[in-house]
Amino acid sequence: MGNSISHISGRQSGMNVSTSPQDTPQSSKHNIEFDDSASPQKRCLLESYSTGDIHQVIATQLQPSTIYRCHTDFTNPVAKCLYREASDIFLKRKADTQLDPFSMKRVKLYEPCNTTAFIWSLPAEILVLIVALLGARDMRCVAQVCSLLREIAGPLFFSNRNFPTSPKDLFHIRVDSPSFDILSTWIRMDAFCPPRMMLCWLNPDLRALQLSAFLHFLQSVPHKSIQYITLFWNFDILASPILPQILTFLENICASGCEDLTCMGFYHFVGSSGVTRLTRMHGHMGVNHLKAFEASSGVLFSPEFFPFTIQTICSSNLEKLRLSYIKLSSAHWEKLMRYLTILALIELQVDADCAPSTLIHFLARHPAIHTLCIIPRPCGTWRTNRITARLMLPISKLDGPLSHILPVLRSLHTLPTLTCLALSLQAHVASPDYLSSVLQCVDHCESVEYLFISLPSQIHSHSAMIWPGTHSAVRVKHLAFDSSDIVRTSLPFAEDTLALSAQWIQAFPDVKRVNMRGYSALAAGDLVDIVRKVVAADVKLSVTLHN
Fold first, then answer.
1. pLDDT (tens digit, 9 = 90+) per residue, 363-373?
2. In whole angstroms, what is the distance from residue 454 CA to residue 109 CA?
């Protein structure tokens, strides 16, 4: 057969097409040579094959009055190469299937070509301009057509919906409930990378379809790839018409493989507590992979949500438990803390409504805790003289009001070496003055790397802020004062707690660094001059004042 690519058989076929009445069918065999002399013809055939003008090439190059269906021989290597080149060009241009290389028609010269041009054959720049004219809903539909249009419409769709997907946002993604449907498009993008943290805001008009879209996203990403999930809401979630779906939504998040779940509600919850149902609940350890759980809303301890909350705590190998702003009474706190036993717990955060005695008895059953934080409450007083439990804790960080921190330090069997001691001063602890109460806590420590003192928002007398002249024998390296809780920005010097606390620095002779921040009636430069009079020359000083 030589270098021929094909032959046109003279067999009668039902697919023959004749454009001239006087033409009569005849058997013929045409050989197309592909040596060097025929390269222009080959080039013309390829170019016409890719542009849709192959009809005209057949009409001029091939002369049979009737052209029948071809039987192509692909055993010839040259034929294979040519056909492959032509096919590649053909597929790139996305020409219409009527230009099938096995079915050709003889047409008149200059007959207009009716080849269909597919939209993805346009340059990417043109497609971007077209998609940019669409609305958000249409962009989403376009992104679901194919991978090419998804890569073009996706970024425009995300930008239109204010959904951040830049590389700098890959660690954490902020998304509200109306944007949950975007996740299904985002996960199919070529550049998709699962974020480690998701911050999700639930809106009052939350719908079940939105929750389903979010859960589908969690099920589609690799297991345990999203480690931190935080949920915020600021509406009466108990009055939501999809409350059962919300509970299922939370349960599925726990089962998704995330390690840190935070549920934080800002809506003022008023209702009964579900703690009384504790005796009828049992958890199964190790059901999920949670290592940290934060419940910062009273809603999570309502009768509707409390089963989920307690099951989450009891069925997880938690290392960190944060229960804050849940508005439980001291009796409910005692029942809750007596019920809970979390062997792997190393970090605990509770409200100051939890009595010091209840807290200490809980700590005695969890000897691995090294970080303890108590959220202060205004005007909270507790009797601590009856606490007799002795604690064997590797405590390194303590944060909270003096009413709780001092009893805990007194209960420790050995003096701790603290990397951080944060004390929140309140008006009722000035007995006889604030600094004396602070020194009581510090003296129960072996050493303190960082001492942070949150000054009271108001003081009853100037004498409560004086320095009694005593010095601490405990070494404190870094000392910080904060008066950010004061709402008034213009105070008389007699009530300027930040300025008055400057003299307290003298009680810590080993301090090497001092930070002062918050509100003050003085300028920053004047405050620095006051501090420089009472500290050594090698002490590093930093002052940051709020407007």
1. 999 999 999 99
2. 92
